[in-house]
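Task card 7
Instruction: Convert sequence to structure tokens.
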Amino acid sequence: MYEVRIDDLPEQVYRQLKDMILNSELEPGQKLVQEDLAARLGVSRTPLLTAFRKLEKEMLVELIPRRGAFVRKNTEDDLLHIFDIRLKIEPLAARDAAARITDEGRALIREKHRLFADGVAVGDRIQYKRADYDFHHAIMELSGNPYLPIMLGSVNLVSISNVSGLVTDPSVSLQGHEAIVAAMCAGDAQGAEDAMTRHLTLSRNKLLQHRGLL
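Output:
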């Protein structure tokens, strides 16, 4: 059983459910049975319902009248739209992060990259999915622009992209991350922007290729 603190219970339940979705404990399309989750988390239904509504706004959960709550299962069109948005925002974040990088920032992004690389090395899907999420969000935070993580996090676009796993092969994504980290740590703003653009474009093109449009 998960331990959920009493203070700010709905927020705690929301975070735990989000982690369970990101970690594939709750799979896309899976029905969220209130009785089971209440017992698992040791809470009543009220904070669960509040968490469901918040996750629905972030496009991680779908509430269907008379059927219940489900982990949102995204279509290829959904993911293409998401990558279109990410391509507008994340290269800017990478550019700004590289321009203002500090030793602490270098240590942080290298650590996030290491966790991703470790997950890829052992084939741990849960680890590298979560590490990919943390890697991209760290760049948002390092950008120094408080609006970028809010814009990207308001609908959890990175989370949504990661729910079903990485679009590209993890070893290919690893190379993309390496290029981003190298440029950021060198303080190369243009290089970081270009590396992020290439990284996300590759995933978007993989989706198009799968649909036979490339």
